[in-house]
Task: inverse folding
């Protein structure tokens, strides 16, 4: 780049320590949501350090000068809108950063369910010595909905634990790692064949409410649902109704993503029988912010050297091609 680049960082908490040293190479500035509209007309690069922010759309104008937006998250659904999609602005994400942590988290959730750890803790709290015979994972079946890097890592780890894993994506195909991938349209007929279903698809117009009331009702008797993707992939009301009534096929569910985050203290989801709630933390292991910063810096080096960026999102699809 012949001209010194202006890099704006959207962060309500101030400049992240991990990237503050970049000010010797670029004009680095931090802004809040309130100042984003002005900054979009001045900067070349925008780093959405607050990656769940929805402030880009209301701050956008025809005078925007930004040419590259980096979202340090796996999904970019919360910040895509028509004007941005139709523009020449490049959008990149944090593909590859969360694969192993989320896969381990899913494995932990499956183990918690199969080995009845939650019940054991409750019995311990009440000093109740109650022997049981929990299930084994070996030989049971799992469906991973989403064939991107996180889905692949999850499928591999569940397979290593002895589960027979099938993946589902947009289209039916043979995959060298995953075997036969089921098409989304096959799920109503096929979902009854799985003991565990894991939601990891990107959130798009096609996947919103993918796990509908009808699909939930078609799941195998005694099965377990895990959502570590986006809350909007699932009809949360239908899930709550099913678990509270006890009349559906599900033995329980674990949610790490919700329609509204943070989940309000008064939400009825906190008290749903058989539902494990966690605060969207499946990918956030120790050092995750450092890795996100390193990934951005690597791409910034490419940007400054006029080299192609990595992890470029197809804005019309809403994800990186080949990552579903």
Result:
């Amino acid at each position: 780049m012949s001209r010194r680049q202006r890099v704006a960082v959207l962060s309500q908490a101030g400049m992240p320590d991990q990237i503050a040293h970049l000010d010797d190479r670029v004009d680095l500035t931090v802004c809040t949501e309130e100042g984003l509209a002005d900054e979009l007309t001045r900067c070349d690069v925008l780093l959405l350090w607050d990656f769940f922010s929805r402030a880009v759309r209301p701050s956008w104008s025809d005078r925007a000068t930004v040419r590259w937006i980096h979202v340090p998250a796996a999904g970019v659904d919360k910040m895509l809108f028509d004007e941005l999609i139709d523009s020449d602005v490049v959008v990149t994400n944090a593909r590859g950063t969360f694969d192993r942590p989320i896969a381990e988290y899913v494995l932990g959730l499956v183990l918690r369910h199969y080995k009845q750890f939650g019940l054991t803790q409750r019995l311990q709290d009440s000093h109740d010595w109650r022997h049981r015979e929990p299930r084994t994972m070996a030989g049971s079946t799992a469906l991973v909905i989403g064939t991107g890097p996180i889905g692949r890592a999850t499928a591999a780890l569940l397979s290593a634990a002895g589960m027979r894993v099938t993946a589902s994506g947009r289209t039916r195909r043979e995959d060298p790692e995953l075997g036969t991938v089921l098409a989304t349209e096959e799920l109503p007929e096929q979902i009854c064949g799985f003991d565990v279903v894991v939601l990891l698809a990107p959130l798009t117009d096609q996947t919103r409410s993918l796990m509908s009331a009808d699909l939930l009702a078609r799941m195998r008797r005694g099965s377990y649902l895990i959502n570590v993707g986006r809350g909007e992939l699932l009809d949360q009301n239908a899930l709550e109704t099913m678990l509270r009534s006890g009349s559906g096929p599900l033995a329980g569910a674990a949610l790490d993503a919700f329609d509204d985050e943070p989940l309000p203290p008064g939400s009825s989801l906190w008290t749903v029988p058989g539902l494990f709630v966690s605060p969207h933390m499946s990918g956030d292991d120790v050092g995750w912010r450092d890795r996100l910063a390193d990934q951005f810096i690597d791409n910034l080096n490419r940007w400054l050297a006029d080299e192609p960026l990595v992890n470029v999102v197809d804005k019309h699809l809403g994800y990186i091609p080949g990552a579903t």
